[in-house]
Amino acid sequence: MIEKITGQSGNKNIPDEFDLRKNMGAIIDKRYIIIVITFIFVFIGLLYAFLSSPVYHADALVQVDPSGEIDMMSNISQLLPAKSPVSATEMQLITSRAILGETVTQLNLDTEVRFTSFPIIGEAIRRYSQPGVPRISVDIFEPRGGVIGDSYTLEILSNAEYQITSPSGATVSGMAGKILDTPEFRIEVNEINALKGDKFSVTKVEVLKVIEELRANVNVIDQGKDTGILTISYNGRDRKQIKNILQTIIDCYALQSIHRKAEEAEKSLGFIKSQLPLVKNNLGIAETKLNAFRSRNNSVDLPMEAKSTLDSMVQLDGQINQLILKETEISKLYTTQHPAYLALIEKIQVLKDEKKNLNEKVSTLPLMQQEVVRLTRDVQSGQLIYMQLLNKQQELKISQASTIGSVRIIDRAVTGLKPVKPNKALAIFIFACLGLISSVGFILAKVSLQQGIDSAEILEDIGLNVVSNVPLSEWRNNHYSNSMRDTRPVSLLALEKTSDIAIEALRNLRTSLYFSMMEAGSNVLMISGATPEVGKTFISSNLAVVVSQGEKRVLYIDCDMRKGYAHRIFDIKNVGLTEAITGSITYQEAVQSTKIPRLDIITRGKLSKNPSELLLRKQYHDLIHWASDNYDFVILDAPPALAVSDAVIIGRYAGISMLVAKFEQSTVREIESAIRVFNRNNIDINGVILNAVVNKPSGFYNYGKKEIYEYHSPET
Length: 716
Prior knowledge:
Layout: H1 20-29, H2 31-51, E1 56-64, H3 86-94, H4 97-107, E2 111-115, H5 121-129, E3 135-143, E4 151-156, E5 161-165, E6 171-175, E7 179-181, E8 185-193, E9 199-204, H6 207-217, E10 218-222, E11 229-236, H7 239-296, H8 304-330, H9 339-362, H10 367-401, E12 407-415, H11 424-449, H12 456-461, E13 466-471, H13 474-479, H14 493-496, H15 501-520, E14 524-529, H16 536-548, E15 554-558, H17 566-569, H18 577-582, H19 587-590, E16 592-593, E17 599-602, H20 611-615, H21 618-630, E18 633-637, H22 646-651, E19 656-662, H23 668-680, E20 687-693, H24 699-703
Parallel strand pairs: 13-20, 14-18, 14-19, 15-17, 15-18, 19-20
Antiparallel strand pairs: 1-11, 1-12, 2-9, 3-8, 4-5, 4-9, 5-6, 7-8, 10-11, 16-17
């Protein structure tokens, strides 16, 4: 029994939720697309892995020893705060412009030499066909006028001869190991490791740009907290060059450490030398005053307490002098508000306070003894300070002569035998994953954006009655296409392949219609669609054949007076409905017999400018009644309901009306809109036919496993 459908669906708003079964089914349906896309990505990964230039890794190990530093603060380390890790400072120093810039200068890295080949493929072919990378060593390259960025083409003539072409087009020849001096440039090619005919581009590059490239490829890693051991590495394409670059960086780093220590020693030595004449002069003055005092006065005896005070004052002067020297050095490292500087000043002040106390103690002595203590103290303090400076001078001279710096090279630069990039297996795996993820993501996104009806359940969930699921005929799909419809007669599937699953579905629909028409009290069936290209003519024409095969007299009327093409399907003249309504021919003359027993047809006839007005005429009403009285079944093929109003007029004279929806093309919104159009005109839609249903593997997840039951020829 076929029920009536209204435009008010049971569940207007279907929740937008993730349907695992639907998405899994979509993935299974499109598995071949996923496989193809994944293999394409794998192929791209293979190209990347085998065509990319290999990147090698060179590394070295150095130790930074802060104990080797030369300073004058070794005796006040207890006053200084805990130092930050030396490694952090040295790591920044290694990648400084000073170190990297010196490396660029020594290796002439601002001269860029590139082997000229076809991009990517040419280099890869050369790499796999011949061992080694073509290279030349350019020790000197100086364009006149300091021009930066101009490319010079250097072509190899032999293993010892080359020719170079300037941007102006001038070509000159040169020999390896000899300086070539021209008005435009000056160059020296020291080594040639290439074949005759190989070409290289030689370009002068900005030094800062090269430094940034070096910095991007240098990596410094601290091997442990407070160990002072650093691993320095460098990545590049040329095994020999990256080793030289890394070793030069380390050598420049170690050399600057030595120079820094020597410079510190030189500055300290200069300070000592500047102080020695002043101290010696003050000592001479003090001795003269003491001798003059003794010559004027006889021997003056000092009590034991005064002698002890004198010795203490001399020691304090020596200690204060040492701290003042240290203050001179520490002021170069810290501000006056730094805790280390403040601690040193505080200690000096403590010694000065002790000296002040001793001076007050001396002031209690007789005047003669006070003078003796003062003069003796000046002489002894001067002698002590002078000896301290002399000793420090000798120490600094020895340190300067034996300066080794604070950097020790443990392992020199070595380049690994195998490249670190690209990791071929990893690259292929990553590209395979990208292909899989992108293909699955694309399919899931397409599913989420797809609004087409892909199952009868979608229509049933919103209260629509699906009277038949008509599968897509693979046989018809392989033999005919939409493009053929206007150029050749369209076949009837019910005749050409009677066992097709689509025809079996129409036979099931025929059975339902028998009982429904008995209940409806009418034998007129209208078949329409919401939009064009949903297969309503395919359904109605083949249904007419199937019904006629059931011993019923059937009249098929092509009511699509705008685009109907039933005359091509049945291969008959296109004279029919238009002419019958306008009175050009009688109803009997409009009916044409077909080669199918018990099946007659009325074609659309001549195209009319006003089909709706023709359908409103009484003649159309009389035609339908005449057909109903003279045939067992009358099938009306109506135009799309949302496209034109003809279907509403046609539906008024039908006992049963049905809509055709196309699988994954028609939308729920279109079907509901079409039903509302009919309902507003008091026309009931008795069911929806879902056409061109594809039996996908995902159908297993939605409906359970489906099998096709059909007849086969005896041969099979």
